[in-house]
């Protein structure tokens, strides 16, 4: 069945839910829409934790351009935090991006937001993260912690000599030709909903942006997947697992890893849900975005059904349950 047919079959999405979905195989794209709101492949939604894909890719590219290995201890790249560094001094950049840092998970969303929206706020959030120290030795256990990406965003900004937002734009968004993906609310934004209730515009603190602050569209997320698949060196670094056999899941750099080499993740914020799947060896990307809180199971089922003829795997539960 084609994409539009599969989308129309997802009864759990409901008639009031706006959904845009897309797939790309070897660069050939198909898109579909659902619901009463006039949306297109260019309509923009909050993509929440899909932002980590962008932060990770931009940081890996920046390190590569400067000849800095991913195995470099993070403290060496954040000299301004040295006086407050209580984390394990051996903690590397790839362990941070791979969510195997072992950092004590003490900096929550409210604590980060309270630092304000100044240019230096993200570095202060990273300072709180490393000041809390380690709960376990780096590399010993996977655990999803947004503080890892506060640290990653600070490394990207410091390497680039500018703010995280400008560094992300210069190192990745501009390079990949992404013009509507960004942190400011775009003209083509879709209003989020909780059931029948439209939600007011969501302010997303600068301190949390490396972990989940972007707006994007199906068209630009398909392009993101295509650009990543085309950069084989970046792709191979990203899809290489940093987790152990006894971890809760297999995880690379910003991506969960499926049983047949799938790369996937979801994102969730009040009023928005997003999910993205890549199959690198099949040059395949699929994505679905919605403006309704309850729609993630339907998105996960849609993307699983799309890729199942290729892999034979049912990954709906994995995509839905991922820890974003």
UniProtKB/TrEMBL annotation:
- Kindly state which keywords UniProt assigns to this record, in alphabetical order: Hydrolase
Enumerate the residue ranges of region (Disordered).
187-206
GO MF terms, alphabetically ordered: hydrolase activity
InterPro entries reported for this sequence: AmpC-like, Beta-lactam-related, Beta-lactam/transpept-like
UniProt keyword Signal present? no
Any single Pfam family the record assigns to this protein? Beta-lactamase
Coiled-coil residues: none
Q: Where is the Beta-lactamase-related domain?
A: 4-295
Q: Which Gene3D superfamilies match?
A: DD-peptidase/beta-lactamase superfamily
Annotated protein name in UniProt: Serine hydrolase domain-containing protein
Organism from which the protein derives: Rugosimonospora acidiphila
């Amino acid at each position: 069945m084609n994409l539009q047919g599969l989308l129309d079959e997802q009864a759990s999405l409901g008639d009031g839910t706006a959904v845009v979905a897309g797939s790309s195989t070897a660069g050939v794209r198909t898109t579909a829409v659902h619901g009463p709101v006039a949306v297109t492949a260019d309509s923009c939604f909050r993509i929440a934790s899909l932002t980590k894909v962008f932060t990770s890719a931009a940081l890996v590219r920046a390190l590569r351009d400067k000849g800095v290995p991913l195995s470099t201890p993070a403290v060496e790249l954040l000299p301004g935090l040295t006086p407050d560094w209580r984390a394990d001094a051996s903690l590397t950049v790839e362990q941070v991006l791979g969510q195997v840092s072992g950092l004590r998970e003490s900096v929550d969303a409210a604590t980060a937001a309270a630092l304000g929206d100044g240019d230096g706020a993200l570095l202060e959030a990273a300072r709180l993260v490393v000041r809390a120290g380690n709960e376990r030795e780096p590399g010993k256990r996977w655990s999803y912690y947004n503080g890892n990406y506060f640290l990653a965003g600070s490394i990207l900004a410091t390497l680039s000599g500018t703010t995280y937002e400008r560094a992300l734009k210069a190192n990745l968004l501009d390079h990949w030709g992404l013009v509507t993906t960004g942190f400011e609310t775009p003209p083509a934004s879709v209003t989020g909903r909780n059931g029948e209730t439209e939600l007011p515009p969501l302010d997303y603190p600068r301190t949390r942006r490396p972990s989940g602050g972007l707006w994007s569209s199906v068209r630009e997320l398909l392009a993101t997947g295509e650009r990543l698949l085309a950069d084989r060196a970046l792709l191979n670094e990203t899809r290489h697992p940093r987790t152990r056999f006894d971890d809760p899941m297999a995880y690379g750099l910003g991506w969960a890893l499926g049983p047949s080499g799938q790369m996937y993740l979801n994102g969730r914020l009040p009023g928005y849900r997003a999910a993205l799947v890549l199959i690198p060896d099949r040059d395949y990307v699929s994505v679905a975005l919605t403006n309704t809180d309850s729609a993630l199971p339907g998105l996960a089922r849609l993307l699983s059904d799309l890729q199942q003829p290729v892999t034979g795997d049912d990954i709906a539960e994995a995509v839905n349950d991922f820890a974003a």
